[in-house]
Write a structure and sequence with these properties.
InterPro entries: C2_domain_sf, DnaJ_domain, Ig_E-set, J_dom_sf, Sec63-dom. By secondary structure, the chain is an alpha+beta fold. It has four domains: about 180 residues, DnaJ domain (Helix Hairpins, Orthogonal Bundle); about 30 residues; about 160 residues, Sec63 N-terminal domain-like fold; about 260 residues, Immunoglobulin-like (Sandwich). Helices cover about 50% and strands about 10% of the residues. The protein has 23 helices and eleven strands. The strands form three sheets. Strands 4, 6, 7, 8, 10 and 11 form a six-stranded mixed β-sheet that branches. It is elongated.
Length: about 750
């Protein structure tokens, strides 16, 4: 057996393996992520034919003029990669076939078992064709032909071929590098070293440095850290911030300054157009001397935001382009504002900040987002979000009988009343209005509260962790249309009539379902209590039987047939009562198993939620009808718990970004430290539409917490570690009870 060899690839066969694996490693994920896909058509924008939606469609097309060409080039590039991959796979398969299938009979073109004369004749014939000295010669094929001839004529070569599959005998084990040999040749060393230095010493450190420089300047939501610091400063400085003040802080974001953002365009015409625009806007506070609120970029951004909310027409070549860029950035910046205010409020609870931030501040930040998306002020009617509806059309929605203020009320009207109110619109315009209303969200807002991992989940003690589970079920608003929803009548007509026996069975089922919560309440009873309840039920059965016997004795004047019927009815009722007793006993006996199943389902649900959190949040839900917003906007929501009486925030607002059909959110907060009845509010706010916010009251009867046993020394607490309530040690809760409100 030969020795081991270490060599470069001379023939290029193993280099094909390297190229094949490397190209496949790039093409498989690259095709998945970069192959152009057609997004689901945004029906709200596509179907609406109002003037603003038409302008927005043209704007979106002009923003991506080379979109089709880019997609075509990307497709051609990916397809070319796959063609090369298939070619390399074919070359590798041929290479493997040549080395793994050495058949001398096939090479010489003679059948198996041919004589020596036939083998020599075929060899002479093929050698005249494949000899390197001939015009049709092929050195590689001639060497292969010679090796095949030797394998069939030479005894030793034949034995080697039969034993090792090679007439030369066992080959030497070789270790090679899957790179061609020209890479290490002396004349090419300068180019190889230059390429190595360019890639690993210049390009790679540059890319890593740029990524690191960008990552240290931005937060996780791609907001400048300097902007976040400014938000913290001003919100801490102004605990109760009005809406116009929030707009001033938003306009001062450093994303709108040229030094921090290279995408900002500063034009010489701004010196004329911006002052002219400022004169058209009242109460802009352009003379404010706070830094950076007094900087020119901040005043310009503030003026453009006010112009957007007032719907003031701007120069489409200059200021309107700046307005589009600023408005496009606002939802991300407002979400960062909400996060900052939320952190400050929670820090205020921990007594780590000087000022206590009011809940109105964070709600004004949330309120600003739909105002900017829809391009209107808060005092305007929500009906202006609909296409073709202007200030002049609002008078048709007010009458002596009806006073329509919301879009939901419009959806619930009958077709005749709705068409009469919109009589100034044409049929095409009316269809646009109905299409947009039909695609708007109608959210079923469900709230339940409990104390997880506690013996009594519905009993709230002082200081317990309360978990509020909010379930959001999103439907289109066309379910509210008063004239199209006639399916209930048809369903009632299609239901077949029941016989008397079937009706009794249905009644029994309904009674069973109605009693189920009662059985669930009895599941915590002890065995002794269960026996007592069984005895009580037996006594009830005896009482029922004795009562029926008394009725039977007092009914002597009735006929024998009537007595027989009474006996049968008495027996039936007694049997029903007995069955009820037995069913109750069975449920009490095996209810612990049902509790275990319920707990296991809850545990599985928690694991599923954690897996979804680890996978990351989706950013796709439903498109918003917002013709004044320069990009496609998705429906997002905020959910949080607050105390409206004490104007405090109990939980950080949860940003729901993937409400396609149904979403479940868990909010946790600590129950008040003092017993009493408290009413909190679970709020749902939209970041895209006005008039779609919802509130759900949550009433908690907080009981006194059980005393902590002091017999264990490790549980002893010193006087210094005891919590001191706010207000110099007086027993005052941070929340307001319902009794306090009644006293006031």
């Amino acid at each position: 057996m030969g020795g081991q060899k270490f060599q470069y690839d001379e023939s290029g066969g193993t280099f094909f393996y390297f190229l094949l694996s490397f190209l496949a490693l790039l093409l498989l994920p690259g095709t998945y992520y970069w192959w152009p896909r057609k997004r689901k058509q945004e029906t709200v924008i596509k179907e609406c034919q109002c003037d603003n939606c038409k302008k927005k469609r043209l704007l979106l097309q002009s923003n991506e003029p080379w979109k089709g060409a880019k997609q075509l080039v990307t497709k051609l590039f990916i397809i070319s990669g796959w063609v090369i991959l298939i070619f390399l796979a074919y070359k590798v398969s041929q290479f493997d076939y040549e080395y793994a299938n050495f058949d001398p009979y096939e090479i010489l073109g003679v059948p198996l078992g041919s004589s020596q004369a036939e083998i020599r004749k075929s060899y002479r014939k093929l050698s005249l064709i494949l000899h390197p000295d001939k015009e049709t010669g092929n050195e590689k094929a001639f060497m292969k032909l010679t090796k095949a001839y030797q394998a069939l004529t030479d005894d030793e070569a034949r034995r080697n071929w039969e034993k090792y599959g090679n007439p030369d005998g066992p080959g030497a084990m070789s270790f090679g590098i899957a790179l061609p040999s020209w890479i290490v040749e002396k004349e090419n060393s300068v180019w190889v070293l230059g390429l190595y230095a360019l890639v690993f010493m210049v390009a790679l450190p540059t890319v890593v440095g740029m990524w690191w420089y960008r990552s240290i300047r931005y937060t996780g939501d791609q907001v400048l850290l300097s902007t976040t610091e400014m938000y913290y400063h001003y919100f801490h400085k102004t605990p109760s911030m009005a809406l116009k003040r929030v707009i001033m802080i938003l306009a001062a974001s450093l994303e709108f300054e040229k030094r921090h953002n290279g995408e900002i365009v500063e034009r010489p015409t701004d010196n004329e157009e911006v002052p002219h625009l400022i004169k058209q806007i009242p109460n802009l506070s352009e003379k404010n001397r706070e830094r950076p609120l007094c900087f020119m970029y901040s005043i310009k951004a503030r003026a453009l935001l006010h112009a957007h909310l007032h719907r003031i027409p701007l120069n489409p070549e200059t200021l309107d382009k700046d307005r589009q860029y600023i408005v496009k950035k606002c939802p991300y910046l407002i979400q960062e504002m909400v996060n900052c205010v939320s952190h400050l409020i929670l820090l205020g609870y921990a007594r780590r900040v000087q000022h206590f931030i009011h809940i109105e501040t964070i709600e004004n930040c949330m309120k600003l987002c739909p105002l900017i998306v829809q391009g209107m002020w808060e005092y305007k009617s929500p009906l202006l979000q609909l296409p073709h509806i202007t200030e002049d059309n609002l008078k048709y929605f007010s009458s002596k009988k009806r006073h329509i203020k919301s879009i939901q009320q419009v959806a619930q009207l009958k077709h005749e009343e709705r068409r009469h109110m919109l009589r100034n619109l044409s049929d095409e315009q009316y269809e646009d209005v109905m299409k947009v209303i039909g695609k708007m969200p109608y959210v079923d807002f469900q709230v339940r509260s409990e104390v997880i991992d506690d013996e009594n989940p519905t009993v709230y003690t002082a200081g317990a962790i309360v978990t509020v589970t909010v379930t959001l079920i999103r439907n289109n608003m066309n379910v509210l249309f008063g004239d199209e929803s006639v399916t209930d009548k048809h369903e009632q007509q299609d239901v077949p009539s029941l016989t008397k026996g079937e009706e009794e069975e249905e009644d029994v089922k309904k009674e069973t379902l109605a009693r189920k919560p009662v059985w669930q309440k009895q599941q915590k009873k002890s065995k002794k209590g269960g026996k007592k309840s069984a005895k009580n039920q037996k006594s009830v059965v005896k009482a029922i039987a004795s009562k029926k016997n008394d009725d039977k004795r007092g009914d002597d004047k009735k006929s024998d047939d009537k007595k027989t019927e009474d006996k049968m009815s008495n027996a039936t009722e007694v049997s029903k009562a007995t069955l009820f007793v037995l069913s109750s006993y069975i449920r009490d006996r095996f209810l612990s198993v049902e509790d275990d199943d319920t707990e296991w389902e809850k545990f599985q649900a928690r694991l599923t939620k954690r897996e979804k959190v680890l996978e990351g949040k989706s950013k796709r839900s439903h498109s918003v009808h917002c013709p004044l917003y320069p990009e496609d906007k998705q429906e997002y929501w905020w959910v949080y718990v607050s105390d409206r009486k004490s104007r405090t925030l109990l939980t950080s607002p949860y940003h729901v970004t993937a409400l396609v059909e149904q979403e479940e959110v868990q909010l946790k907060f600590t129950a008040p430290r003092w017993p009493g009845v408290y009413t909190f509010t679970v709020c749902l706010r939209s970041d895209s539409y006005l008039g779609f916010d919802q509130m759900h009251d949550l009433k908690l009867d907080v009981k006194e917490a059980p005393e902590v046993p002091t017999e264990h020394p490790q549980w002893d607490m010193s006087d210094d570690e005891e919590e001191v309530p706010e207000g110099g040690g007086s027993d005052v809760s941070e929340f307001t009870t319902d009794e306090d409100v009644e006293d006031e």
